[in-house]
Design a protein that fits this description.
It contains 9 helices and no strands. By secondary structure, it is mostly helical. The chain has 2 domains: about 10-90, RNA polymerase sigma factor, region 2, helix turn helix motif (Rna Polymerase Sigma Factor, Chain: A, Orthogonal Bundle); about 100-200, Orthogonal Bundle (Arc Repressor Mutant, subunit A), CATH 1.10.10. The protein is globular and about 55 Å long.
């Protein structure tokens, strides 16, 4: 079975031919994904916004060199992750946590109005964020792309130039590390909630 056709092929071709409207459609389609990856990899929303703009500038200027050997989305995510790595090298290791981690919203119920439950939910969310930021860079990248941005294993392998087995092993270690950090902070009941979330990913 051959590779899946690129759903963005027509828009990419139009953009390469100078159609700004087509390129704007690509930006609208992928801006949130690029922002999500950037925010969680570098830990600062303001920097992530600037980086996302730079990514699309690079994409615009690089369209002529894009040969379609990979999906446009995979190529875009590769540029994004490389830009994030370069950004992290330019600044100190101190990062500020971004407040919105959509995946952590699943950990505790959103319908409860109990102040104690809401406080626990907020604390657990922050704990998950900190645990992800504390991961080694290689593990954090794989975890963000798989469990938060929902890329397939194959897309991650292409994006990071890794073997599938390496992607799976890094993801496994990352999930275990996040789980252990949560266990060290929260009570038995809260651990079970967090563990069940991690086990479902």
């Amino acid at each position: 079975m051959g590779p899946s056709p690129d759903p963005d092929r027509e828009l990419v071709q139009k953009a390469r031919d100078g159609d700004r409207s087509a390129f704007n459609q690509l930006i609208l389609k992928y801006r949130n994904r690029v922002m999500g990856i950037a925010t969680r990899m570098i830990g600062d929303q303001t920097e992530a916004e600037d980086l996302a703009q730079d990514v699309f500038v690079k994409v615009f200027h690089g369209l002529e060199d894009f040969q379609g050997d990979a999906l446009f989305s995979t190529w875009l995510y590769r540029i994004t992750t490389n830009s994030c790595l370069n950004q992290r090298k330019k600044r100190s290791l101190r990062t500020r946590m971004h407040e919105s981690l959509e995946a952590a919203e699943l950990i505790l119920p959103t319908s409860s109005s109990n102040p104690h439950t809401l406080l626990e939910r907020k604390e657990l969310k922050v704990c998950v964020e900190k645990a992800i930021q504390a991961l080694p860079r290689e593990q954090r990248m794989v975890l963000v792309l798989r469990d938060i941005e929902w890329l397939s294993y194959e897309e991650i392998a292409d994006c990071l130039a890794l073997e599938l087995g390496t992607v799976r092993s890094r993801l496994h270690r990352a999930r275990l590390e996040v789980q252990e950090r949560i266990k060290a902070v929260f009570s038995v009941g809260e651990k079970r909630v967090a563990e069940s979330w991690i086990a479902e990913r």
